[in-house]
Amino acid sequence: MFAHHIITVGLVGASLRLRFWRVGCLVMALHDATDVFLEVAKACNYTKRENAATAAFAGFAVSWGVLRLLVLPLTVIRGALFELPLVLDGRPPMWWGFCGALLLLLCLHAYWFAMIVRIAWMQIVDGGGRDVREDED
């Protein structure tokens, strides 16, 4: 989880430094939009409102899949990979690191989405979802 924060903050900082403002703003907006559902689900869970928590978690899972696994790669990453080189007049070294960080962030999103799906599946099948990030070995 900490790597995600380092990459995201690095991308935002690099977007400011390199003047890729639109990319930085979109990365932050797409991440913040899913966090609303997560925080509502947590609050409902802590206050023992199971139906509301389940609905908020469903909204979180859907928003995560749509925003971070569809919108991010199809708009932000595609634009950075194919349109930024046209603006930059080539592919300077900074571009490679920036796009590499975006792709690494996408890989982390896919990994976490698999965990979200596991939690949802356990909720449906078992009626209870434990945190799959904490494996007992």
TrEMBL record:
Pfam families xrefs: TRAM_LAG1_CLN8
User: Is the Transmembrane keyword given for this protein?
Assistant: yes
Which keywords does this chain's UniProt record carry?
Answer: Membrane, Transmembrane, Transmembrane helix
Q: Offer an example of a GO molecular function term for this protein.
A: sphingosine N-acyltransferase activity
Q: Which GO terms describe its cellular component?
A: endoplasmic reticulum membrane
Location (main, coarse): membrane
Q: Which InterPro entries match?
A: Lag1/Lac1-like, TLC-dom
* Residue span(s) of domain TLC: 1-125
Tell me the Gene Ontology biological-process terms attached to this UniProt entry: ceramide biosynthetic process
The UniProt entry lists membrane topology as:
Multi-pass membrane protein
Q: Where in the cell is it found?
A: Membrane
Q: Where are the transmembrane segments?
A: 52-74, 94-114
- Protein's name according to its UniProt entry: Putative LAG1 longevity assurance
